[in-house]
Amino acid sequence: MTADDSNGRLDDDDYPAYTMGRAAEMLGTTQGFLRAIGEARLITPLRSAGGHRRYSRYQLRIAARARELVDQGTSIEAACRIVILEDQLAEAQRINAEYRRAAESAHSASAG
């Protein structure tokens, strides 16, 4: 691996850079919480060669949102479902905005 490869991975939101212990520490939660949201299929950590769970920054953001909901009294299962739906909605809105921009661009080109 070159220095460029490692720098690129550090910028990659999907690179599994964090161990379970470090992820729990960063989120201010327990490893059991991370296992529970994994069992609920909110996030699926990658496994190191030794079988240890590794988390990406994207997964940590998802886990942090679930933790917020649980801290507010939502069950883990419901929190995971809410976060999944929020993520799906954000993706649908992103795609819709792309279609809208493409349609406006096509309309501008044909009107000009």
TrEMBL record:
Gene3D superfamilies according to UniProt: 1.10.1660.10
SMART domains, per database record: HTH_MERR
Domain HTH merR-type residues, every copy: 17-85
Highest taxon in the source lineage: Bacteria
Protein name in the entry: MerR family transcriptional regulator
Origin species: Streptomyces stramineus
